[in-house]
């Protein structure tokens, strides 16, 4: 079980629960076709953005499997993306993490910096044995982030599903708790303490 109790401060970012005040920042990037391209949702409208934001404000605790922790990534008072951790299996101690960022802030290491904290929560706070990450094979930026974090590519599913009207493939990455403990990222100052 993990209850998010205070913001996580990294070198440049604050990871915190979403609030209703984040609506404009969230819509700024979630309404973009290039952001929704590799996600299961379409670009958000003001109406469905508000509904999604309301749901995210409640995703601050991992009490049981299938629960999701979703945190806003705040850069100097502006939400530039979000990170999430889903508890997939309590018995097998499995989780899945992900990240979505405003393209205006990509290429500066923010996704790697924020996503590392979700791995830290999963392994060090929730006691997970294995965390996976998935992305569309065309999403080379997300694949590079997962590789930088030290996850290994375990699978490349070729044309495995019809995604937004066309055959799509998916890459699966994973990391074990033992690999996390051996990672330089785990040796960094624990920002969640």
What does this structure look like?
Pfam families: Acetyltransf_3. By secondary structure, this protein is α+β, with helices and mostly antiparallel strands. The protein has one domain (2-187): Aminopeptidase. It contains seven helices and ten strands. It has helices spanning 23-30, 33-36, 46-56, 110-125, 140-148, 177-182, 184-187, and strands spanning 2-3, 8-9, 14-17, 61-62, 68-75, 78-89, 94-101, 130-136, 152-163, 166-176. An eight-stranded mixed beta sheet has the order 2-3-5-6-7-8-10-9, with helices on both faces. Strands 1-4 form a two-stranded antiparallel sheet. Strand 7, helix 4 and strand 8 (130-136) form a beta-alpha-beta unit. It is globular and about 40 Å long.
Index terms:
Aminopeptidase; 193 residues; alpha+beta
């Amino acid at each position: 079980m993990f209850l998010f109790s205070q913001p996580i401060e990294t070198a440049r970012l604050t990871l915190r629960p979403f609030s209703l005040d984040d609506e404009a920042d969230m819509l700024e990037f979630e309404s973009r076709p290039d952001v929704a391209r590799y996600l299961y949702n379409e670009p958000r409208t003001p109406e469905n953005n508000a509904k999604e934001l309301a749901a995210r404000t409640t995703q601050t605790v991992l009490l049981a499997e299938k629960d999701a922790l979703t945190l806003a990534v705040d850069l100097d008072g502006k939400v530039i993306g979000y990170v999430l951790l889903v508890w997939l299996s309590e018995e097998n101690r499995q989780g899945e993490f992900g990240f979505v960022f405003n393209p205006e802030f990509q290429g500066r290491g923010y996704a790697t910096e924020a996503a590392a904290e979700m791995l830290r929560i999963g392994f060090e706070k929730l006691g997970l044995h294995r965390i996976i990450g998935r992305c569309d094979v065309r999403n080379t930026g997300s694949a590079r982030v997962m590789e930088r974090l030290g996850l290994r590519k375990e699978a490349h599913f070729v044309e495995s599903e019809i995604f937004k009207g066309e055959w799509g493939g998916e890459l699966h990455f994973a990391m074990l708790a033992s690999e996390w403990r051996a990672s330089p990222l785990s040796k960094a100052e624990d920002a969640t303490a």
